[in-house]
Amino acid sequence: MTAPLPAASPRSGREGATPASGAASGAIPPAPRRPGVLRRLTRDRVAVVSAAFLVFCALLCACAPWFFPENFYAAQDRQLGAVPPGAAHWLGTDALGRDLLARLLEGGRVSLTAGLVGTLVSVLIGTTYGIVAGWRGGRAGTVMMQGVDVLAALPFTLFVILLTLFLGRELIWIYAAIGAVSWLSMARIVRNETRLLKTRPFIEAAQCLGQRPARVICRHLLPNLGGVVAIYATLTVPNVMLAEAFISFLGLGIKAPMTSWGLLIKEGADAMEECPWLLVAPVAAFSSTLLALNLFGDALRDALDPRTA
Question: Does residue 27 sit in helix, strand or coil?
């Protein structure tokens, strides 16, 4: 006698399917999709606040000439002297009667431009040098990186001073000089990443197909280096701004009557006992901007890291 058949399920088709039956049939469930970089950044409140603060500062400094149409560099009223913050001057004035808020915004425009231009120069030189050293490899790559080690051993300040004396103390040359000595770390990082990517199957496949090295680098290598370069470029901006501030603090950077945050900090430090507001305002603006840049750079690194969920 045969065993009775089990009762038919009232559901059939897709309604009757269960996870167990799907697993028994050998079907592999789809892997969960990782959120994109932009979505992961927007989920990070620290990154959002830092980015909003940086955009606000950049727009405020860029629009400073419309807020303060008077000459930033000319003495407004020598008899007025240094006036503490009040209704007429929110951040006070300096010894020459110049509004500190106006000079702070103008100095921010110079410092932020120095950070962006210097970082661009650093990225261009460091990325190119690192790719060439990593792609060539062997003795040529070793000699190239030994040259980076020799340059890194030189005094940073002395090197920038020599470049500014040789090129001149114009703004564009100061930016280029700072960027020209800030590419060493970028070159090391790009070189190491290039050596790792060069052994990946898709690079080897492109070479087996007969593609030229320049085509392989442009179409396959650079897109995979974009995340690493973006992360360290974001972290290079505050370093370049610190370098510009240090050079200006020593009196070797921006020439008066032009100003930057570093020069404003120097002027405030000289008059700290009599006029403390001249030091507090530029220090607060400079430190908060550097903090926002570092926090955003850390958040971008976490968002681009494939090992994080």
Answer: coil
pLDDT reported for residue 308: 53
The pLDDT tens digits for 163-210 are 777 776 677 777 777 877 788 888 999 999 999 888 888 888 888 888
Model confidence pLDDT, tens digit, residues 109-163: 888 988 888 889 889 999 999 999 998 888 888 899 998 888 888 777 777 777 7
d(CA 80, CA 95): 8
Q: How far apart are CA 86 and CA 106, in angstroms?
A: 20
Place of tokens 């190491």: 192
Domain count for the chain:
1
Tokens of 273: 């006992």
Whether 104 is in a domain gets the answer: no
- Look at residue 86 and tell me if it is in a domain: no
Tell me if 140 is assigned to some domain: yes
Q: In a 10 Å sphere around its CB, with 0-12 CB exposed, 13-18 middle and 19+ buried, how is residue 58 labelled?
A: middle
- Identify each DSSP E strand in the chain by its residue range: none
Other Cβ atoms less than 10 A from the Cβ of 102: the count is 21
- The CATH number of the domain holding residue 226 is 1.10.3720.10
What is the rounded distance in angstroms from the CA atom of residue 13 to the CA atom of residue 273? Answer: 84
Contact 131, 217 (CB under 8 A): yes
Contact 175, 118 (CB under 8 A): yes
Instruction: For residues 166 and 247, give the distance between their C-alpha atoms in angstroms, rounded to a whole number.
Output: 15
43-57, 115-129, 208-222: segment of lowest average pLDDT: 208-222
User: Which domain does 168 fall in, by range?
Assistant: 109-309
The amino acid occupying position 214 is A
In this structure, are residues 259 and 265 in contact, taking their beta carbons and an 8 Å threshold? no
